Amino acid sequence: xxxxxxxxxxxxxxxxxxxxxxxxxxxxxxxxxxxxxxxxxxxxxxxxxxxxxxxxxxxxxxxxxxxxxxxxxxxxxxxxxxxxxxxxxxxxxxxxxxxxxxxxxxxxxxxxxxxxxxxxxxxxxxxxxxxxxxxxxxxxxxxxxxxxxxxxxxxxxxxxxxxxxxxxxxxxxxxxxxxxxxxxxxxxxxxx
Length: 192
Fold this sequence. Notes:
alpha+beta, three-stranded antiparallel beta sheet
């Protein structure tokens, strides 16, 4: 009886240890984490350009991040933006709603998460009675996002914080599920 209780206690202890170890051996980045990182640099998502020879100031006013949309390995961005057209000394703002999605990519050396290979999934323009799609303007916004996200990570892992140093020492694989990206140790395989 005493031996049975001891074995049961050891088994429960082993189960608890394995459970704790698995939670320590993974790192999760949520939609909110990515969104907060992008919102801190929202002012950098603006650009002066021209469309059909007309000067336009592109800026992003709000951003929403969706990870693993439709159970796919993508990060989707929904952006509300303003395109200010300057003609004859007057400014005409146009509201722009964009949907973009791209492939998450983890750079092991930088310990940074990037979104690359963006595609446009939605483009709506609302400007002084005109509602619809204005492809040249949507293309300019795509260029703005592509150039920004090519050089700026959407999330950087701080390995100096609370026991995260192991993230810099082992190859990691990403698991993308709706709402989050989880990094797990990857042994005997190439990193993603």
